[in-house]
Amino acid sequence: KPLVGRMRFFFKNPIVDAYFSYVLAFGARGGADVGEAFFTASRISQYKPETWVRAFTEMAERLAPIAEQAMERGHRMTARQTWLRASFFD
């Protein structure tokens, strides 16, 4: 039997949960950190699309200053990785 609809990551709605699995998958490529993804998901109402936009934007706005601070201190790799994560949420 296919796993679609049987396996759940966070949301009860299978379509919304499938998108969340997409968010998690990009963590391996420098996208959302798993903890950041689950924190962001906890701030989302699966039936209100505007909460997705708000939660993702807020996470991007949290990460951008961290990247800027890392760059100011000369930590270019940390800054690059953090900006990449921030752009994923923005």
Task: Please give a structural write-up.
- With 90 residues, the protein is mainly alpha-helical.
- Helices cover 66% and strands 0% of the residues.
- Helix 3 (49-72) runs antiparallel to helix 4 (76-89).
Question: Which percent range describes the beta-strand content?
Answer: under 5%
Q: Average pLDDT across residues?
A: 87
The largest β sheet comes out as: none
Helical residue percent band: 55-70%
Q: Kindly, what is the distance between the CA atoms of the first and last residues, rounded to a whole number of angstroms?
A: 36 Å
Rg measurement, Å: 15 Å
The number of helical elements comes to 4
Q: Please state the overall shape, judged from the principal axes of the Cα atoms.
A: elongated
DSSP E strands, number: 0
Topology diagram in text:
Layout lengths: L13 H12 L8 H9 L6 H24 L3 H14 L1
Helix pairs in contact: 3-4
Question: What's the short version?
Answer:
With 90 residues, this protein is mainly alpha-helical.
